[in-house]
Design brief:
The chain is an alpha/beta fold. The protein contains seven helices and 22 strands. It has helices at residues 12-25, 29-33, 36-39, 54-68, 314-317, 365-373, 394-399, and strands spanning 70-72, 92-95, 105-110, 117-119, 132-134, 139-142, 156-158, 163-167, 180-182, 187-190, 203-205, 210-211, 227-229, 252-254, 261-263, 276-278, 283-286, 300-302, 307-312, 324-326, 331-335, 348-350. It has a twelve-stranded mixed sheet with strand order 2-3-5-7-9-11-13-14-16-18-20-22, with helices on both faces. The longest helix has 15 residues, at 54-68. The two termini are 21 Å apart. This is Leucine-rich repeat extensin-like protein.
Length: 412
């Protein structure tokens, strides 16, 4: 599957470019970060101070506080976090901030794949010049400190693949420059705040948590996201038509195993830049919206393990960039035209366990007949506040057991 990736390695050049970008976005941050009134633009605290400027002294305080609450560091990643030269600490990167090119501040943290156990102390709020925090693939736990609201230059936040808990960390909603948010593979629970989708974020990853409730009705209100991944949570309800607001930006939409129900809205077909659409392992019903035939950039389409019915339209199978089309474990009854021979177009496909006549590995007539006799009409489906669907034929429910995506390849 195609995936949206940011570089996990931070370099000084990247930080310099990023700071210049942030300066362009918000010159008024200079006053907020200036410490001239207190320190009279002295770049040293005083003659005997080992710190070149007050910002580095604050960084030292913050990083020493962090080191004290790290209780396992098997690779000795933070072994050199000693003394005042914080810019030489492993995983810590310094650069000149947008408001003063004559000094150095701690601008980036990269502890990716360090296997560190501990938590995030409130003192991290002292690192007010951070543009990047990457701590994925560690064993950090606990809740996200509210003091991160001080990080008004933060552009990328990657807390993925850790053990953070609690409700969705609303502190991220207060970060004015945040562009990339990655919270996947943690233990966050409860609802997604609708405010998340009002922020101008380029990438949102909240998959593989314990998030519940309905998908917010303003899902898609953020009209700048390139990637939205909310897979492997328990949201339920329907995909809101507001997804159409992302038509000018969205390239990847992954909603795998989120308990989605109702019909797939035709507004999905408005997402003309979409390359990857995966709504597998849900409870979707009704036909494939013919509007999907307009997604000329679509490369991967996965509708598997739902309760969808009707015809597989030739317009979808004729998409010029389609490379993988999976619609197994549904109740489709007919494939139009070239859909019956996708191999001739070089498209990888999986059409097993449908109701397709003369195709191998299909459902039995006993299962298919009652479903085909009672087709779902999407115009009769009503989704109020993100949830609720019409009646689903009993035959569908008995023929479509819930299967975890992680064991799907073994299920036949």
């Amino acid at each position: 599957m195609a995936s949206f990736m940011f570089s996990t390695n931070i370099s000084n050049a990247i930080l310099i470019i990023l700071f210049l970008h942030l300066q362009f976005l918000s010159n008024n941050l200079a006053a907020k970060h200036s410490y001239s009134s207190t320190h009279h633009h002295h770049h040293r605290l005083h003659n005997s101070s080992p710190f070149a400027n007050p910002k580095l002294h604050q960084a030292y305080v913050a990083l020493q506080a962090w080191k004290r609450v790290i209780y396992s560091d098997p690779n000795n990643f933070t072994a050199n976090w000693v003394g005042p030269s914080v810019c030489n600490y492993k995983g810590i990167y310094c650069a000149s901030p947008p408001y003063d090119h004559k000094i150095q501040v701690v601008a980036g943290i990269d502890l990716n794949h360090a296997d560190i156990a501990g938590f995030l102390p409130g003192e991290l709020g002292l690192l007010s010049d951070l543009a990047l925090i990457h701590v994925n693939s560690n064993r950090f736990c606990g809740i996200i400190p509210q003091t991160l609201s001080n990080l008004t230059l933060l552009y990328e936040l990657d807390l993925s693949n850790n053990r953070f808990v609690g409700p969705f960390p609303r502190v991220v909603l207060s970060l004015p420059m945040l562009n990339y948010l990655d919270l996947r593979f943690n233990e966050f629970e409860g609802p997604l705040p609708p405010e998340l989708f009002n922020k101008k974020l380029d990438a949102i990853f909240v998959n593989d948590n314990r998030l519940t409730n309905m998908i917010p009705q303003n899902f898609g209100a953020n009209n700048s996201a390139t990637v939205l991944v909310i897979a492997n949570n328990k949201f339920g309800g329907c995909l809101p038509p507001s997804i159409a607001n992302l038509a000018n930006s969205l390239e990847e939409l992954l909603l795998i195993n989120t308990s989605l129900s109702g019909c797939l809205p035709p507004e999905v077909g408005y997402l003309y830049k979409l390359r990857v659409l995966d709504v597998s392992f849900n409870k979707l019903v009704g036909p494939i919206p013919y509007s999907i035939a307009g997604l000329a950039h679509l490369e991967q389409l996965n509708l598997a393990h739902n309760m969808m019915t009707g015809i597989v339209p030739e317009g979808v199978c004729m998409l010029p960039n389609l490379a993988n089309f999976t619609f197994s474990y549904n109740f489709f009854c007919e494939e139009e035209g070239i859909c019956r021979n996708l191999t001739s177009k070089g498209i990888a496909f999986d059409d097993r366990r449908n109701c397709l006549p003369e195709k191998p590995l299909q459902r039995s007539n006993k299962v298919c007949e009652p479903v085909l006799e009672h087709p779902v009409e999407c115009f009769e489906q009503h989704c109020s506040n993100g949830g609720g669907t019409g009646m689903v034929p009993t035959a569908m429910l008995t023929a479509a057991p819930v299967i975890s995506p992680s064991i799907a390849p073994a299920y036949r």
